[in-house]
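In the design runs reported in the main text, the only information available to the sequence generator was the tokenized backbone. The following block is the verbatim input for one such run; it is reproduced so that readers can re-run the procedure and compare outputs position by position.
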């Protein structure tokens, strides 16, 4: 009986190791594509970088990091429409950052429906507004959209409310960043700054 149990455990262990090897091999192969993407992007070899990140995505389509890297690469290249198409491949429909990014890319690409998409995000963020929460990005995006849809003064008033609610909490760098941008930039540029869009 002991021999059967030991034999069974060896068989299970062998299959487990084979499964782990195949998983690791696939992951390593995908990471090779990603490493090539990084190498080419740093060297400025744009076509090869894009091909490599596409290969990584094809290898592991559910990997949000690869999709985000592609979106950021396309933004860096000034390819707003292509970046917008790439965001559609990311499975995160309720992600307020992605929704805002989509609206901002539509705005930068001068698409007619940009304000509609931005307004949807604005309305959604207003419903969940809670300046005392720890979701600083959510609050910062909301205030940037107040600046965009209402005006600069209201944006700065909302920012003051947020600053007051966050007294004694972690760093206020994001609040300072937004205050500087609202004070010195156009309402569109304030939104572009969040995603390094020029």
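Verbatim output:
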């Amino acid at each position: 009986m002991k021999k059967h149990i030991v034999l069974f455990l060896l068989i299970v262990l062998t299959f487990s190791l084979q499964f782990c090897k195949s998983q690791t091999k696939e992951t390593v192969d995908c990471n090779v594509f990603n490493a090539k993407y990084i190498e080419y992007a740093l060297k400025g070899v744009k076509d090869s970088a894009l091909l490599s990140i596409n290969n990584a995505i094809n290898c592991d389509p559910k990997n949000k990091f690869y999709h985000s890297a592609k979106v950021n690469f396309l933004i860096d290249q000034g390819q707003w429409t292509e970046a917008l198409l790439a965001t559609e491949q990311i499975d995160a429909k309720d992600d307020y950052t992605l929704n805002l990014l989509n609206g901002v890319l539509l705005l930068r690409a001068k698409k007619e429906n940009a304000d509609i998409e931005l307004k949807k995000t604005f309305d959604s963020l207003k419903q969940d507004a809670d300046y005392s929460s720890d979701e600083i990005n959510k609050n910062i995006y909301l205030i940037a959209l107040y600046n965009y849809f209402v005006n600069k003064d209201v944006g700065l008033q909302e920012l003051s409310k947020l600053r007051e609610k966050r007294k004694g909490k972690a760093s206020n760098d994001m609040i300072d960043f937004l205050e500087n941008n609202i004070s010195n930039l156009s309402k569109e540029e304030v939104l572009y700054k969040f995603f390094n869009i020029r």
